[in-house]
């Protein structure tokens, strides 16, 4: 579907930092909000789940035992940013009755994208094993992510979790402004850090994989994002429906790639309302 695009077209539609010139302001504000939130809330910071230098998690215990666990995976095109930019989402989720785990992972090009996917799977399994320690229910995880983190969360839905783990412990997924077909990556600047061949694109694109975890999925994207970026979310939603998944598509008017993350922390908003329903299901 991208055959007619030139390099400038790919950049226009698939480089969010070009589409939002003041993105650094948004990210800086998010970072400050997250730091202030950590000052207010009890939590365990940078708990190690693997040997990689960035394989750490922030854990926010739920207020009551046996609560659902919200596992959040940050974006940054697999090569930038961290959980510390998005920690501000934890406070309203705790108020909604969840425990929260904010996941970091090693970044490209220090590791391959395939390694990042495996690290995130390791993080999810680790959080499940530690859930009781944060008042969480190990059989009720909601996996979420934004941008490249949404891609990684979607990859968890296509993972063949072994029978010992089962797949039923993932009770839902929240995918916000994600990229689900990696075909554009070799045509944009991030290819310098995220090197993909044709086989990588096939096996690491959720759009091209069978979703194996049959849990409800929310696919959200901003109405002010580029058309082809919105199209990725719409097409992945259709992929889920075709696989007989319970899936909701949510277009949030007036939001671009960097403002939509704030919707994850707005208790009265549409996105948070849908998240609350997943946590309660």
Explain this structure to me?
By secondary structure, this protein is α/β, with parallel strands linked by helices. It is built from nine helices and eight strands. The protein has helices spanning 7-14, 16-19, 23-40, 90-95, 113-130, 148-157, 198-203, 227-242, 270-280, and strands spanning 44-48, 56-60, 67-73, 99-103, 136-146, 170-176, 217-222, 247-252. It is globular, with a radius of gyration of 17 Å. It starts with 6 loop residues before the first helix and ends with a helix. The model has no long low-confidence stretch (mean pLDDT 96).
Principal-axis shape: globular
Low-confidence stretches: none
State the share of residues found in helices, binned by percent. Answer: 25-40%
Our count of domains comes out at: 1
Largest sheet: 8 strands, mixed
- Corresponding CATH architecture: 3-Layer(aba) Sandwich
